[in-house]
Amino acid sequence: MELDQLRNFLRVAEFGNFTRAADAIGLSQPALSRSIARLEEELGQPVFERQPRLIALTDAGHILHDRARQILALVDDVHREITDDGETGTIRLAGIPTIVPYFLPPLLREFGQACPEATVRVQEDTTEVLLKQLADGETDLAILARPLEAKHLEFEDLFEEELLLVMSPQHPLRDQSEIHLDDLDAMPFVLLGEAHCLTRNIVQFCQQKSMQPVSVERTSQLASVQELVTLGHGISLIPAMARALDASDRRIYRSLAGNQPTRQIVMAWNPYRFQSKLVLRFQECLRSFVQNHPPAAEQRED
After folding, report:
1. CATH number of the domain that 251 lies in?
2. CA 177 from chain center: how many Å?
3. Residue 67: burial class (beta carbons within 10 Å; 0-12, 13-18, 19+)
4. Running DSSP on this structure, what letter comes out for residue 93?
5. How many whole angstroms separate alpha carbon 144 and alpha carbon 197?
6. What is the pTM of this model?
7. Within this chain, do residues 195 and 302 fall inside the same structural domain, yes or no?
8. DSSP state string for 235-299
9. pLDDT in tens, 169-205
10. For residue 206, which of 89, 137, 154, 215 sits 20 to 30 Å off, Cα-Cα?
11. Same structural domain for residues 195 and 222?
């Protein structure tokens, strides 16, 4: 069994299609099929169930899928440990969609100036997916938001971020001097899907104050939430880092009076996997960046 066979197998499993997987790998489709056929011959049973429009894993394929990911992650660890010089190499960084586009760009620019020969590969996904990747050794570091539930992972608090009320310029609360959470009771909310931790943050905060937000629409992108609010579909609570990059005058942002909603941003990693000097250097860069660029405590009120 060769490592390339395992890599090819994982790509087919990822795409569910030989042709698309072959394009992604850079092989011809017949060459990829032969690679999988040799793997199945060595194992003595099929790893894929060939259906007319879909390739599905067999029971043996599911077992191999988990083991192949672990094997390749260990091989990557060995290679990075041997070649580790703290200056070159690749960092596999991940984050949730409500953090990556707002927080990472200035951080990556700063790290790029300090380590110009390093490569940072960024992946954006939901918390559940990223926690699994950390556990499996497929990701070196992740920037996430609490609450988090995961065994055998380390979490370091970075900063607390305020969640700001966003509404359309025509909203009846626009001219109210102070807005309390009670003022939002029964008002329609536009939220992200249930897989996003920001939605859990908002719902938990409201429930702690004996209020249940009425969700009228769910979307997968924070920018879509902002646009739906602009169109008058409802209100929402938006991270301060997203508001800081919103130059539009078609939305109004306000801090809630009293106990303000917040979320806790954390750095996460797997202490049982090899941490290269470069990864440790990035961690220090991240800590320094947060210390030197604290989140804005006040936002413009329109």
Report:
1. 3.40.190.290
2. 36
3. exposed
4. E
5. 9
6. 0.76
7. yes
8. BEEEEHHHHHT---SS-EEEPPSSS--EEEEEEEE-TTS---HHHHHHHHHHHHHHHHSPPPS--
9. 999 999 999 999 999 998 999 999 888 889 989 988 8
10. 154
11. yes
